[in-house]
Amino acid sequence: MTGTQRSLKHADAASWLGISSKALRLYEDRGLLSPGRTAAGWRVYDAAELARAADIVALRQLGLSLMEVGRVVAGDNRDLGIALEAHQMVLKARQQALAVAMAKVQELRLALSEGRMPELAGALEAAEGGAGIALDLPWPWGGERFTLKSLASLTFIIGPLGSGKTRLARSLADAISRGRFLGLERLQADGAVLAERLAADAALAARITAAMAWLRDDGATESPALLALLVGLAGDRDDTVIVDMVEDGLDAATQAAVVAYLRRAASTLPRLMLMTRSSAILDLAAVRPGEAIILCPANHSPPSLVSPSPGAPGYEAVETCLASPEVRARTAGMVATRPAAAG
Known about the structure:
Blueprint lengths: L6 E3 H8 L3 H9 L6 E2 L5 E4 H15 L4 H8 L4 H36 L9 H5 L5 E4 L8 E4 L5 E5 L6 H11 L3 E4 L8 H10 L1 H16 L6 H10 L6 E4 L8 H13 L6 E5 L16 E4 L8 E2 L9 H7 L3 H7 L12
Parallel strand pairs: 6-9, 6-10, 7-8, 8-9
Antiparallel strand pairs: 1-3, 2-3, 4-5, 10-11
């Protein structure tokens, strides 16, 4: 903030903070911020309130729930200490992966310096942190090749009704080593069966209990659908779980809390690919570096990666596929079909 910028209106404050207007309003709704008002009733954020908002944004990026953020800004730093310790562990893992990548590149350079052609097949992918995936696309694409150079820790799969995104998701689950498709049958999961599984696996039960506590703090509503989702996401870091319409069965606040939790727990969860058409799940303004968006176009052109930057190729198509949780609830269960051919 400069001396001439004493205050900002709501949309300008959100832009300056690098978050969505919706997120900024949520912080106010939870009592974390108290913006002033103009004579016309518009929210306005002075320098002190913007500084407080910036701290809240940083705490959220560290993975704190809204309740934990509230305790920290009130002066209780215990949750912050735990979050910083966890963040340090994530950075250490990245540092180790980077050291492996640098060593691989050094091997390639050494081979060149000795007059040998290095074996490049798979080497650069390994240096970048892991191989990607390539597969022949199913109908309606007719066998066209689809390639991802690397797999992100969190990928969103988006597309309108009838675009083939479910077929793509299932094909990805089949093609990715240790891939798994988590379908909508989870919504009919037997609660007694889930309870038996948790009773038989104390470590899993402890993780689910901790996740539920964090989600409740963040405004989520505990439900059988949420429990089934959390249990279905359990796995090793080398796994990849592709989730069919992750928002189904979850209200708006729970959807927002789930995405925040998945980002917070990314270092302990499998890689995730989330099929969605909910703007609460895929808030384009909140997509982080290293995350990915795959668009399945309505015209059945091959799927493509889309940057979450306004004006980027495919951005508008992604944006038009998204709807609020309320609209998604009204259209739940709708299936696009082709009319039968005449005669």
